[in-house]
């Protein structure tokens, strides 16, 4: 099987790495890819960009791809999966209509209501007066979400009403393209309890859950600083209630997939369920329409089932024919090395050295890097690298990942020192109601 992976981040590097472990996958291509993938995949430049569905489809046909896997959210919302399928190539990723589950938080709330999925109470606002009323109705801490795509950084959770209002105003001032609806902002009630990410592979009918993970959104230790795209993750979750995955599939994923199918917009791909285990039970924080970053890095590190066959089955409507997914027993932790100035103004062009000091069971996945011809490896984005390590438990995996990241040099870089620490110390627990 020949697979084309669309994207250039650490998530896509993790997908490429997992595909190379699948004996059925003979060739892996990536567009545009990154320097870390060069040894694993043939990378292609695409002048039109990866949001141009026709260009991606033509590339897939030209290289004879049997399967296209779309990593980032923007190409999905732009309809790249539709174009690939129209060209006769199997594609893992939802249609543009189905990807609205991530592209519009207001649409996602409508689907959750139709499917009777438990989630936070919310008001969808189109003006600041509505925003102020909603903030007053819910009270602090305030949760303000941009309705559209924001690369994981469109959410503000703050006890400061002025800060919440300012973020809402910024969201409502966002420019929209021709034919796009006016910007909206979603104001939600705050959900207590630990958060969990669960990816569900689906062909639009059957659902195959992956292993739960937990990520860390804030930039700094102890969950301080601004929201980011994610600074680290770990899996499995030693504190998670027994039966959590089955409960999420039965109560959330399957009803959502059924509701999408009944609307005439079947969802095939990854349904990323972001959960809070609250004192009142499970609540959906958000849906995404693709693999999450950085959780993918640890989830795929533990996947024993061949990834290519799994994604191809979902893309071709045969997921129900597969055996239950198999997992390695080890624990995985990933830590993100970010550039100086991330997330507001990351510095680019700094040399990266020391990667040769990283050895199994730790390894490096590239995200924001570039390597000009004949030059050294340079930073080229906010989240520059993801370092992954496995161990018998969280303590061992953490020791290995932090030993590996300590050998990497990038001027002014930053990373969190407490990824998975609270869980390793037994300081994370689901509320009693969250165990039901």
Automatic annotation (TrEMBL):
PROSITE patterns: ATP_GRASP (PS50975), GARS (PS00184). Pfam families: GARS_A, GARS_C, GARS_N. SMART domains: GARS_A, GARS_C. It comes from the Bacteria. Its cofactor is Mn(2+); Mg(2+). GO terms for molecular function: ATP binding; metal ion binding; phosphoribosylamine-glycine ligase activity. Belongs to the GARS family. This is Phosphoribosylamine--glycine ligase. It comes from Kineosphaera limosa NBRC 100340. The gene is purD.
